[in-house]
Design brief:
Elements (H helix, E strand, L loop, with lengths): L1 E6 L10 E7 L5 E7 L8 E9 L9 E7 L5 H22 L3 E9 L4 E8 L2 H13 L16 E11 L1
Antiparallel strand pairs: 1-3, 1-4, 2-3, 2-8, 4-6, 5-7, 5-8, 6-7
């Protein structure tokens, strides 16, 4: 599966299986996150590494956090981030998920960068998740030097979902 994140007025590069229209809460950006079964053309395509539903089924997502790790991401940093996500952060969030709707982990191979999109029912849920992640202890063997954290986090209102 692939994803594109483009301005709302940009033509989609390919047919989408799902679309999320997002309006930035503390800024001027409006984008559409589209999921595609086939590989769309263009430089703004992302590989969907994981698509994880969390929390109770049917929860209506109202907000999304777009967490960006700008590239290029060295292989050792990517491996450390993947381990942290799969072995520490993901399980901790899944264990306490009551209202987070979905997490998409996206990778842009040509730019060597990662984006994590977290959909939730409200902003307090997102902020609670961020606080939980910050409070997690590192696992044995995790090197904090290889876990620099995101370059920026944007919060969006989910204004439309189409599937």
């Amino acid at each position: 599966m692939y994803a594109t994140i483009l301005p709302t007025d940009a033509a989609p590069p390919a047919a989408a299986t799902e679309e999320f229209t997002l309006r930035q809460i503390a800024g001027p950006r409006d984008v559409v996150l589209r999921l595609h079964d086939g590989d769309p053309t263009g430089t703004d395509r992302w590989i969907v590494e994981t698509d994880s539903p969390l929390g109770p089924p049917g929860a209506k997502t109202a907000v999304a956090a777009v967490v960006t790790f700008s590239g290029p991401m060295p292989p050792a940093v990517r491996e450390a981030a993947d381990r942290a996500d799969h072995d520490r952060i993901g399980p901790a969030m899944a264990a306490r998920a009551t209202s987070t709707g979905r997490v998409l982990r996206l990778w842009q191979e040509d730019q060597q960068r990662k984006v994590v999109v977290v959909f939730a029912v409200d902003q307090p849920t997102l902020h609670d998740g961020f606080r939980t992640i910050e409070a997690l202890e590192l696992l044995p063997g995790e090197d904090p030097a290889l876990l620099p954290g995101p370059d920026h986090v944007e919060i969006f209102e989910v204004t439309a979902v189409t599937s």
